[in-house]
Design goal:
The protein is mostly beta strands. It has a single domain, classed as Porin (Beta Barrel). Helices cover about 10% and strands about 60% of the residues. It has one helix and seven strands. Strands 1, 2, 3, 4, 5, 6 and 7 form a seven-stranded antiparallel sheet that branches. The N and C termini lie far apart (about 40 Å).
Length: about 160
């Protein structure tokens, strides 16, 4: 599956590179803030945790108003167990490769709206508590893929 994703990304980049005047390639990194809502066990209290992401984004500009992006992102998401019944304060971390195709429309020169989808592929799950470092989980506790919608508002100078 990882080879298929890499191949799709490479073919998309090569297709866009033929029209180099309208094609840009950008890189970004940053922090993300994530949490989880557990449906099976209502007694577990969770709180958010910070992770990071690194992204490569080839994009094609059709004109001054309209642009298409294909973001490929490595991200870490997860949560912390904040239940008073858990003295170890367990923390869970999930690593994903996210494919995020989206479109952007420039309403004004400094105001852009975007819409897209996010398809995440789970790479690994890790766990740690107060007395141990990160340990990979042998039993998968969540689905191997994640799907979502992306909305964006960008404003600037």
């Amino acid at each position: 599956m990882k080879k298929i994703i890499a191949l799709i990304f490479l073919l998309t980049f090569l297709y866009f590179s033929k029209t180099s005047a309208q094609v840009n390639l950008s890189f970004s990194t940053g922090l993300n803030w994530s949490n989880i809502r557990l449906k099976t066990n209502q007694k577990v209290d969770t709180k958010s945790r910070f992770g990071f992401f690194a992204e490569i984004s080839p994009n094609y500009r059709f004109n001054d108003k309209f642009r298409v992006l294909l973001n490929c992102q490595y991200s870490q998401k997860g949560y912390q167990n904040s239940s008073p019944l858990d003295p170890l304060k367990a923390e869970y971390k999930y690593s994903y490769v996210d494919i995020i195709p989206e479109v952007e429309y420039s309403v004004l020169q400094n105001l852009i709206f975007g819409l897209g989808v996010n398809y995440g592929i789970l790479l690994n799950e890790q766990f740690r508590d107060a007395s141990h470092g990160w340990t990979e989980l042998n039993i998968k506790s969540i689905k191997s893929s994640d799907f979502g919608l992306v909305g964006k508002v960008k404003a600037g100078y």
